[in-house]
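Apologies for my clumsy wording, but can you show me some protein sequence, whichever is easiest, together with the matching structure tokens, please?
=====
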Amino acid sequence: MVPLDPSTDEELTRRAQAGETGALGLLLARHQAPMRAVALSLLGYCPDVDDAMQDAALVALRRIGDVRDPAAVGAWLRAVVRNACRTRLRATREMPGLDGLAPLSLRADTSSHPEQLIEQHAMRDWIWDAVEELPERLRLVLMLRHFSGITSYQEIAAVCEVPVGTVRSRLNQARARLAQVLLSTATQAHDDAAALTEESRHEAVETLQASERGHLPRAISELWPEESEMVGILGSPGERIHPVPVMRQILDKGVRQHVRHVVASRDITIWEMDVTNPTGIANPCPPTLAWLMFRRNRRVQRLRVVFPQPA
């Protein structure tokens, strides 16, 4: 339960804008009922209401500094919920709902003001440290839904081999726990999330290049120890198969992969690839695929290759 606080909305908003995350938590708790009323009025009684509320809370976390009239923060929060709901109603397919949290790696059009860059880096690291605190089954659906190209509930259900309803349930649990962890870790130091992502991107590029050369250098071969196992559609039911021979079979067909996007946590990594097929190949590979890796001590224990459906 969030403790009562006699501060006014204006005081809490200014404290939140100054970086006091606990003040934002108090604001969200104070305005939860009217925010939910807005969501219900637009979406009706359905699971999307919880999604919209969590999306709005996370957008508020990132954009509380945009509030120009701190005394009217309630109206601003309701507008954030309203926008989240309208985005869902307009969508022709299910897309990620974290809106402003997507830029965990800074983009070229990001403001060059040093203080804003520092703030955005700190926000990214804070969020990823909180993601790392989630149990694996919750962390996986959250990473897929909000940080990868595998975003629809149907696709996530197929990847995780669970019903769509389970995906919804796990996402709700993940968002709720994430919000709790964010509030409890606001003042702590956080690891550099960009460094982990860049290291994983380097591993992806080196793995592909080494496979094409026909031999893996020591650093890359350690990434794929003997106990590594290929599972899923490219695996072999009832038989343990190492990923490296499967990579070679794909290369022998003339199929080439190119790293497009990397999502990395300490023990779950997603490499999204663009694929090119040789002319006239029988049974060509789909144009995109993703490597979903479960790791222990940085080494891959299980690799599942998935083929997202085109939008």
Q: What stands out?
A: The chain is about 50% helix and 10% strand. Residues 116 and 224 are 39 Å apart (CA to CA). Residues 92-119 have pLDDT under 50 and may be disordered.
